[in-house]
Amino acid sequence: MIPFVSPMEVLMTINIDSTPAAALDRASLVLDAFDGPGRLTLAQIVRRTGLPRSSAHRILERLVHLRWLRRQGRDYELGIRLMELGSIAVHQDRLHKAAMPYLHELHRATGFVVHLAILDGADVVYLEKIGGALAASIPTRVGARQPAHCTAIGKAILAFADPADPAEPLMQKTRYSIASRARLDTELAKVRMHGVAYEREESLAGIGCVAAPIGEIDDAVAAVSVCGPTDRMAFDHRLAAPVRMTALSIWRNLDGGAGRVMPTLQRRHPLRMGPAGMAPMPVAR
User: Fold this and answer.
1) What letter would DSSP give residue 87?
2) SS3 call for 227
3) 189 bridge partner residues
4) C-alpha angle with apex 52: 50 to 54, nearest 5 degrees?
């Protein structure tokens, strides 16, 4: 596994008799010098940044050690760690753009809070939340984390992820949270079988969710969910069908391009609302 290097670690290692803010500014100044393809020498970086030669050299060598830069002889170029972070950012941005029209359509169709999330370790990280009137009742936000095993959106991705360390304890958010690996394994097997995950008050009292994975078969890169009060949720095909179709539409849009794929959920044929805010099956065409 590639080690994670935090921005604070970078600051601690390149802090040259300055405040953390100043150290960050200097590191950013050095990285900004690489504004195009190709390598730069120390002399070129000094000219572009205006930093003292000794300071620039120390920052460069530390960034090389942290893999933010790479040195070839006396030349420097952007390192593999920046490539990794850039790739992640581009992927997430593409995912978000591909998902947005379908997330809004799902929210309009069901009236529930819609989430888009990815897996990061044992947690899910929310990339988008579309809530409407119900948003305030569900205290999630973009960038926030939740234990994946406590959420439907997390279980939808965990079902297709590498198995976790069986010795790692499972956090309980409510009395309904899954507390044992055996029960979690059973739950994830159901997700793989049916292509949909359910949550009933496992992360928040009174709240339920229905989620589906986004990605190729047996390889989820993200998931989408609808959440709302458990007494208004339909934990069956009435919500599972539109959620799964939304996940499929997002993946097709992400994988093949919106111009080549007819969306499953289309604005000119909106889903009709069912009683008490429950989602019916898609309108027949």
Assistant:
1) H
2) strand
3) none
4) 145
Closest C-alpha among 159, 89, 155, 162 to residue 127? 89
Which range among 186-190, 216-220, 274-278 has the greatest average pLDDT?
186-190
171 pLDDT higher than 60? yes
The Cα–Cα gap between 15 and 116 comes to: 38
Q: CA nearest 112: which of 207, 249, 200, 220? A: 207
Beta bridge partners of 77: 70
pTM over cut 0.90: no
Residues 6+ apart with CB under 8 A from 165: none
Three-class SS state of 174: coil
Q: Which amino acid is at 254?
A: L
Are 224 and 243 spatial neighbours (Cβ–Cβ below 8 Å)?
yes
Q: According to CATH, what is the number of the domain 88-277?
A: 3.30.450.40
Q: Give yes or no on whether 7-78 and 88-277 have one common fold.
A: no
Domain boundaries, the chain: 7-78, 88-277
265 pLDDT more than 90: no
pLDDT of residue 190: 95
pLDDT in tens, 190-220: 999 999 999 999 999 999 999 999 998 888 9
- SS percent in the chain: helix, strand, coil, step 5: 45, 20, 35
Domain 7-78 has CATH 3.40.50.1000: no
CB 159 within 8 A of CB 197: yes
Containing 48, the helix (H) or strand (E) segment is helix 42-49
Q: How far apart are CA 148 and CA 163, in angstroms?
A: 13
Task: Name the 3-class secondary structure at 274.
Answer: coil
